[in-house]
Amino acid sequence: MTRLCIQGGVLADQTETAQDLYCAEGKIVGIGAAPADFTVEQEVDAKGCLVMPGAIDLAVCLTPIGEFRPTALSESRAAVAGGVTTVCSLVETQPIPDSPAAVRLLMEQVADAGLVHLKSLGAAMQDLGDTQLSSLGALREVGCVGISNGLRPYANLLVLRRVMEYASSQDLTVFYHPMDHALAGEGCAHEGATAAHLGLPGVPSAAETAALAQMMALVQDTGARVHFCRLSCAAAVDILEIGLDTGLPVSADVAIHQLFLTEEAVEGFEANAHVLPPLRTEADQHRLREAVRKGVIRAICSDHRPLDPDAKAAPFPATRPGIAGVETLVPLSLKLVSDGVLSLETAIARLTAGPAEILGRPVPTLEPGATADLCVVRQNESWTFEASNMHSAGHNTPFDGWTLQDRVVATIRDGRLVYA
Length: 420
What we know:
12 helices; TIM Barrel; eight-stranded mixed β-sheet; alpha/beta; eight-stranded parallel β-sheet
């Protein structure tokens, strides 16, 4: 492996002075001064930049969605261009990861790309259906870190309870999208003023909170470890906080777009703001930001869903929900710092330590001996994010044309430069 020196960067955990950081054999081996007999083979100029652990994204689609054909290579390139070194794959892909063979295929594709670490979720139900459980033991043995049915519903609460009991017996986390599909119906925007103005069918906040409350009752009953994916409303945070205060084994994440956009983003039938769960009110956004700051929500993710242009070209209710967001995850999270919403320490923790703990992985650090998964960010330099320059196969983003202050200029995975 290459012996790498990251020169003159400000380390995220030691922000007083700039220091060199040395990597060899996939590990951090020195800070400030090179180890004895260390010969630099490659240099990364980090002067004026922040050096932080590589981000861990809990929600990245790496393979085909429907008829669209993004690849593990294109989406891995997008991830490292955004400073992400570890991704947790979504289950709504082809092939559906409901068998060891399907999971191995995805792992091989990502390994061949050689850019990011993959932590795979397995499909809780065969073919993401609603009644037939997958072999969770076999999925655990092949390396899955958790199971999910994505945005697809379970047949009923009894089936969900059986999934939780089975997952608990295999020491697997259940990744659960809280949504009552009967209440959500055909909704495509938050049930509020904007949807009413545009004549769009709405998704009430109760679709999320009703499902969340039911799941909390099942967690209390089964003791299963559950991670709630993509919370979107204030009332859901309130329920989560009660569960945490009573000691239930639960955690939650939020998609970065929920921390910047509200229901008003869909004005003009802006299809790139069509997401599920939908963008909600300013009050909901404020509560989500507060929950991230306090650690009630432990992770910020991209919910990266690359789509082809046709998927966003139909009338709004017929467009496909999703944002290609992995390239904006780190810059937007650091914008929360410059906007005074989060401290730098908290923002980095929600991108690294929180996701790692949810996945049951060691917390990333910049200490000697730690895995050299790193992100170099140039700060306080205005730049414009342009969808046309995205590395992802999908350019579906509502952040096209946004002016940002923090830009990923290099990404290192296992001590190897994978993006510059």
